[in-house]
Amino acid sequence: MLSAGDMFGEVTVFGRLSRMQDAHAYGQTVIDHLSAARFRLFLEEFPDVVDLVLELMALRQARAIIAIDEILRLPLIDRLGRLLLDLDRLSGNAGVVPVAKNDLAERLGASRVAVSNALAQLAALGFVKSGYGRVDIPEPAALQVWLSCRNEAHPADAMARDRD
Known about the structure:
164 residues, mainly alpha, Arc Repressor Mutant, subunit A, 3-stranded antiparallel β-sheet, 8 helices
């Protein structure tokens, strides 16, 4: 999940790999492209940017490690709650996440039925209201507290605090 000013594809440049991912834009999006050769020339011309790229790559690696950890140890309801909070943050903290259940299922590596059940559990607890192509989070802070209490000292919580 990227937001304004973010970049992607740097792993393929540094690793000399072929394309590894697809990107899907939600809402108005402007995308620019640099070839690997041009990107390398840019980094040579502006060496200070190398540190920023390395920091970005380290943060993404940390997020990937956290995601793997969550898959291995957290119930789906917790992973869904965290994903919804991340999507809400990316969409401006409006408490409305414009996302379909199929998209949530794909992001979580779960079935649509399992995601629907987890959404129903979160709704029964009063944390979300599920609608067509959207999930409302009336009180994101309450959901965050609930998740934090269930998963003490989770590294994703520290990363979220650092982002804010």
